[in-house]
Design goal:
Blueprint (H helix, E strand, L loop, with lengths): L2 H21 L12 H13 L3 H10 L5 H15 L16 E5 L6 H10 L3 E5 L5 H11 L1
Parallel strand pairs: 1-2
Helix pairs in contact: 1-2, 2-4
């Protein structure tokens, strides 16, 4: 899938989700910030780690042919989004991104590489069941 079509699809999906969140009853009269880009990144990351029927449903919802398309889109956009603000670059931005999984759930080496190299994110496995306080402490240190 070409870059422009991928961008159009992901923009449509993330703005649709954002619109539903912001128009929900729970969002009324509250101070709420929603990042369409963050929604897109997290759904793409979830898709990268999915298989079978879950993968098929996510790809359909995200209007993508494959998780490769989503990963490539992120890979192509990261250098553009995080340009240095110079005349040939773009806005200077930063974002915190990471995958935090319970230590009982194995992460495949391929998924770890996708998270690290394509999404420029960290992956961490922690004990959410027996050591909740330490897990939150480590999360807060990171972000």
């Amino acid at each position: 899938m070409e870059l422009q079509q991928s961008l159009n699809n992901q923009t449509d999906v993330s703005l649709t989700i954002t619109g539903r969140v912001l128009s929900s009853t729970e969002a009324k009269n509250t101070n709420l910030v929603v990042s369409p880009l963050s929604l897109d990144v997290v759904l793409s990351l979830i898709t990268a780690g999915s298989s079978g029927a879950t993968l098929d449903q996510l790809l359909s919802f995200l209007k993508a042919h494959s998780s490769y398309d989503l990963n490539k889109l992120c890979y192509d956009l990261v250098p553009l989004i995080f340009a240095d603000g110079s005349s040939d670059g773009g806005p200077k931005m930063s974002y915190a991104n990471g995958v935090w999984m319970d230590q009982t759930i194995p992460l495949s080496p391929i998924f770890k590489d996708i998270v690290h190299y394509l999404y420029k994110a960290d992956h961490n496995q922690v004990d959410f069941v027996n050591n909740v306080c330490m897990s939150f402490f480590l999360f807060n240190l990171k972000f």
